Amino acid sequence: MIENDTLTRLEARLEALESRLAYQEHWLDTLDQTLAGQAQRLDRLERVNALMQQRLREQHQTLDALDAPGVSDADERPPHY
């Protein structure tokens, strides 16, 4: 009888461990999918950031090119005029 009781308890523990393992595997898969999605989003954001930096540099270059080379700061009106 003691053997049967011990076997029943071991089976119950084994089932509990298998259940916990399945639950943890499910969460690992979920976390893996979430991490992959965040990595893709980060890649997109980095590409957008690089594009915006390039456009900002181009705008600065355009503004510098439009700046009249013959006009100095001394020739400009003060801001209160």
Description:
This protein is mostly helical and 81 residues long. It is built from 1 helix and no strands. The protein starts with a helix and ends in a 15-residue tail after the last helix. 0% of the residues are buried. The mean pLDDT is 90.
- Count of individual helical segments: 1
Shape: rod-shaped
Beta-strand percent range: under 5%
Give, in order, the helices and strands: H
What is the average of the pLDDT values? 90
Q: In whole angstroms, how far apart are the ends? A: 104 Å
Helix content: over 70%
Q: Stretches where pLDDT falls below 50 for ≥5 residues? A: none
The largest sheet is: none
What's the total count of β strands?
0
- Helix/sheet category: mainly alpha
Radius of gyration: 34 Å
Short recap of the structure:
The protein is an all-alpha fold.
Sequence-ordered SSE layout with sheet pairings:
Blueprint: H1 2-66
Properties at a glance:
0% strand; 1 helix; mainly alpha
